[in-house]
């Protein structure tokens, strides 16, 4: 007699994919900043960019008692100083966090901790917005995949790293929030979206093209669908009117009538008011505009009146935000700044970091465009494509064009990779490999690895503008020793100016800001010209110290090598400049006799 013995199969281990993904996200966030970088920011205010340094200078001035409406940097280009076009609405929360921490840590550490905490808090808010936006349309797995992609996208992370207290991260949050409101539709999301657009304008005008596209999207939706799309269009127009109280909150009443092309002022308030009036007019006449053609005609008439009025009232701003910039300053400063460089220029100079920034944007834009005409939730992909393609086009010409657009990569990547994971078991051959390639192409760390590999195989060409040389010369170790010298005005390379203002009591002649054309001109001519050019600028601006960066000489403005460059190399010496020894500093410094 045989007895059947049932053999039990071992229990199947089920892997919680979402838990694994969240663990990876947590690890990515924990390793976003190297411990040495965090400590350097906390203890020495290490910041990644000149704009971050200048922002902290403005915040310090505000905390020291400088007026809310007084945006003049008085140690920049004496005797009058330079009026900044930056928003106090960005300074305020940073200053508030410093005040909150100061009783616990002291002012110095409070500044460093704020420089670490502020961008990390904004990154957490961005990840929350990404998760909620994707989860509402595609479910929890796609949402966590989107957050994972956000933590792997280099173009996003550089805007939220420790020390990044400039305004680009806030612009990302405002425009990304606007996009989510466009996806949802309806009166309330429209109001919120319009308010976020107004906030973006108050912070800075960099995102103006995206706001215009958002308005056109809602207007076009109303033209095609009529009354069903009207609430979102009307809400956006009404929300956009928030630009007026925001303008009043950050602009001195005496300047309310002054037109600026680089900041929220009457030219841009005209557009905001026109957008609000257009939305109200379309809502009032909607019942009489029964066809798409009639709605298109009326909206086109309103748009023509709005743009025509702008051109007639503010013609100077048609040429861009830098109407007073001279050819000398454009050639020897503006066009040498990395964020103003094109993709071909990055490639020609073998600056392979462009591979970490740009290709993923192209892949995401193509994927969003394809999904906008296939499958579910087409509206989300249409909105994503709407904001990605300007980044592709503008970013090809200027790197800064991708700063906002790259935030929409996770919005596309999360759902696309989620679909790929679901479909992969049923795919074979070319379709499987194509799906895999698309998924990998939407994860930024793969492009970062490619950039590192390209840099290792083909080192950056030797060119006088080596970015490592720049970092060395405006770092704390190089600039802080200047503080031991008696206060005076320093003539130094343009990119060092903000660090001198942040780390020393000295004044500067030049810093990388377009409202200071005389100072930019003085530095370019002084460091790039002859001895007589340098002496002329020294006298004109009452210079007490000359500082140069050996690894970043000035551009030669004549056939022979610039006098300041030869002075730095030790090839010449003159009695009216006395060398100053600053142990440990990468700078060469002279005192003017």
The counted number of beta strands is: 7
User: How many structural domains are formed by the residues?
Assistant: 4
Judged by helices, strands and strand pairing, the structural class is: mainly alpha
Low-confidence stretches: 461-465
Note the overall shape. Answer: globular
Chain-wise SSE layout:
Layout: H1 17-30, H2 35-44, H3 50-63, E1 72-73, E2 82-83, H4 88-105, H5 107-138, H6 140-152, H7 154-157, H8 168-184, H9 187-203, H10 208-225, H11 230-240, H12 243-250, H13 266-285, H14 292-313, H15 327-332, H16 343-348, H17 354-357, H18 359-371, H19 378-397, H20 409-423, H21 429-441, H22 444-457, H23 467-474, H24 476-479, E3 489-491, H25 497-503, E4 507-508, H26 517-528, H27 531-540, E5 545-548, H28 563-568, E6 577-580, E7 588-592
Parallel strand pairs: 3-4, 3-5
Antiparallel strand pairs: 1-2, 5-7, 6-7
Helix pairs in contact: 1-6, 2-5, 3-4, 3-25, 4-5, 5-6, 5-8, 5-20, 6-20, 8-9, 8-10, 8-19, 9-11, 9-12, 10-11, 10-14, 10-19, 11-13, 13-14, 18-19, 18-20, 20-21, 26-27
Structural overview:
Keywords: Membrane, Transmembrane, Transmembrane helix. The chain crosses the membrane at residues 19-36, 112-132, 138-158, 193-218, 230-248, 268-286, 298-322, 354-373, 380-396, 402-421, 433-457. The chain folds into 4 domains: 33-143, no CATH class; 166-323; 325-463, no CATH class; 467-592, Rossmann fold. The strands form 2 sheets. It has a 5-stranded mixed beta sheet. Strands 1-2 form a two-stranded antiparallel sheet. With 593 residues, the protein is mainly α. 45% of the residues are buried. The chain has 28 helices and 7 strands. The protein is globular and about 80 Å long.
